[in-house]
Structures are given as structure tokens and as C-alpha cells.
Design goal:
Low-confidence stretches: none
Shape: flat
Number of helices: 1
Structural class: alpha+beta
Distance between the termini: 42 Å
Helix content: 10-25%
Strand content: 35-45%
Number of strands: 2
Order of helices and strands: HEE
Mean pLDDT: 76
Strand order of the largest sheet: 1-2
Length: 68
């Protein structure tokens, strides 16, 4: 039987997303034009939300290993 772990914090969510993307050698590019999102202070129903406004590009790239 599989178990689903509940994400308890934003860092946990980010780590999980990074791990999944890294497994797939993924690149994701988002282009925002006056985009507004309400960011919760915690991963729970009673969280306080703060508005964030985004303009421009956000590029997330992952790769395995570190070259040095």
C-alpha cells in the first residue's frame, strides 16, 4: 500500500518539486505579465495570505551533478 505524505511547509514543497524536476532533467520557463498571486504563510486552511505581483520571466532549470 502506498502512502501520501502531506506537505507541511513551503521549503518541503520546493524540495519535492526540485527533486521531481531533477529526475526528469526538466526546464520550465514562466513568463509573467502583471500576474498577481496570493501567497499563504503556511500550508493550512487558516494561513494568512500576502499578494505578490510578478512581471518578467522565472526560469527553473535542473541538472544532475556539479561540474567543477
Amino acid at each position: 500500500m502506498s502512502t501520501i505524505e502531506e506537505t507541511k511547509s513551503w521549503p518541503d514543497l520546493a524540495i519535492g518539486l526540485y527533486d521531481r524536476l531533477n529526475e526528469r532533467n526538466a526546464e520550465i520557463v514562466y513568463d509573467f505579465d502583471e500576474f498577481e498571486v496570493s501567497i499563504p504563510s503556511a500550508a493550512k486552511d487558516s494561513a494568512v495570505h500576502a499578494p505578490w505581483k510578478l512581471n518578467g520571466k522565472l526560469k527553473i532549470t535542473t541538472r544532475n551533478g556539479v561540474s567543477g
